[in-house]
Amino acid sequence: MAAQPRMVAPVTRRIAPSAAGKAPLKVNIYQAMQATNTTLLPLFPYLEEGAIVPCGAIFCGGPGRSFGHFFHTNPLNEVVLILGAQGGNVEAGDVHVLAKTHGVRPDIKDPTDPTSFLIACITQREEPAAPEYGREAITFRCKQCSAVLLRCEYAAEAVPPFAERGGDAERYTTFATIVGTLEATETFNADEARRTCRQCGTVSSPFPMRGWSAYVQQTRTANAARRALGVAARDALGAGS
After folding, report:
1. Which H or E run contains 66?
2. DSSP letters spanning 6-20
3. Residue-range domains of the chain with CATH
4. What is the pLDDT of residues 76-91, one digit of tens each?
5. How confident is the model over 165-189, as pLDDT tens digits?
6. What is the rounded distance in angstroms from the CA atom of residue 54 to the CA atom of residue 32?
7. What is the pTM of this model?
């Protein structure tokens, strides 16, 4: 006799309701990266402790283009999902879990090739229980012998929950990793002595900024504009009372 199929009880899965002040959101990552001003972009405004933070990353080749290479130290796990790539050793659908200290450089063999590109989603969870949570570092190494040229540590504390921001506060916060990377890069680029290897004498070129400064400045501008509108509204209401 043929074996009778084993009956399995259905599994009921329920998604818990969203936390107060955190409305469910969705983003088309391709459209988001089409309009972004930076190579790394948080896709949602939720960056506080416990939040799952997906970021879009975009790179494309072109004449005279270079991407540079640095190392990022992060106590949190970063999971990379490749959502489209050409001209490198990764393919759409590849998934990677990055080491706590990992190199940051797109897997594109020839940065000057205008047909090469990469779009990925890099996700981390802001888990305060992780050892060394809130401390990250950027390290630049000599391109010739890999000696450390500069290591910059920075605070990456979680921002207040979105619902608690408002009024005259910085409602639209910058992603701490982008700010820390920008400040480290500015320090590295400003001083040729820092870019000169004490071990082999090689002078590294300034690191390309990749839009980080535009992201930080435009975040500040967005906050300033929002505050200005609030002041104008209060003045108008006061004049009419």
Report:
1. none
2. PP-PPPP--PPPPPT
3. 29-240 (2.60.120.10)
4. 999 999 999 999 999 9
5. 445 567 788 888 898 999 999 999 9
6. 12
7. 0.83
